[in-house]
Backbone:
């Protein structure tokens, strides 16, 4: 190889490397949010908690619209008909036996919805950059995937966790792992993404993940999507309080 060809090769490889690292934290988080947000979506899934008392399993149906509106209905025998609605940044619970709607606020959001997953965990929409300052702090290999490591510091008190560290795939912008921290810096929860699948227009979707509460030793909750439909036609009043009855 002559010097001219060698120089061209070096310049090309350098350009590729610079491009790979030229993504800002804001661009990565924005892209991650966009790829996990759909106009509408319907899913059926399973949540499994394992702790020192054994295993508990629940099934559910869920509907979402955009980045904010979300409705989940439990379908297993013990919790059948219980619903959780998130709309206009508010969260509501519905219990069929009491035919009562309960608004969730403040400390109540920290209660367990199922195992290691709190009501607070499902209140966040996909508008991450509206609530966090983000900074690129490094790279890491997670389950064989080269990932950006991004620190997120909350700019609002209206978020579940004041600090998060997320690891996002460089090839696909999919979350691969996350750590959630208290304001004191104490590690609260770890999320591991187990399975990612391709749907619809070719976008990747997380279909299985495990959340482990670091304050509850030996406890973890697996959340799995068993059926997924992207962009279904949904009734206009689905994300309203009257749809809960």
Residues:
């Amino acid at each position: 190889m002559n010097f001219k060809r060698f120089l061209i090769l070096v310049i090309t490889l350098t350009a590729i490397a610079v491009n790979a690292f030229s993504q800002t934290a804001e661009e990565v988080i924005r892209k991650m949010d966009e790829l996990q947000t759909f106009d509408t979506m319907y899913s059926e899934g399973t949540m499994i908690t394992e702790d020192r008392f054994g295993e508990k399993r629940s099934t559910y149906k869920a509907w979402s619209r955009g980045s904010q509106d979300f409705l989940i209905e439990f379908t297993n025998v013990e919790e059948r008909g219980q619903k959780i609605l998130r709309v206009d940044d508010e969260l509501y619970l519905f219990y069929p036996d009491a035919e009562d709607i309960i608004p969730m606020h403040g400390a109540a959001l920290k209660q367990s919805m199922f195992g290691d997953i709190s009501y607070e965990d499902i209140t966040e929409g996909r508008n991450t950059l509206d609530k966090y300052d983000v900074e690129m702090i490094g790279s890491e290999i997670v389950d064989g995937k080269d990932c950006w490591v991004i620190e997120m510091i909350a700019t609002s008190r209206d978020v579940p966790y004041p600090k998060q560290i997320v690891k996002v795939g460089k090839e696909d912008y999919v979350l691969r792992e996350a750590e959630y921290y208290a304001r004191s810096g104490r590690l609260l929860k770890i999320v591991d993404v187990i399975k990612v699948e391709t749907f619809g227009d070719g976008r990747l979707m997380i279909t299985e993940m495990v959340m482990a509460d670091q304050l509850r030793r030996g406890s973890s909750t697996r959340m799995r999507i068993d059926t997924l439909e992207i962009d279904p036609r949904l009734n206009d009043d689905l994300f309203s309080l009257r749809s809960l009855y």
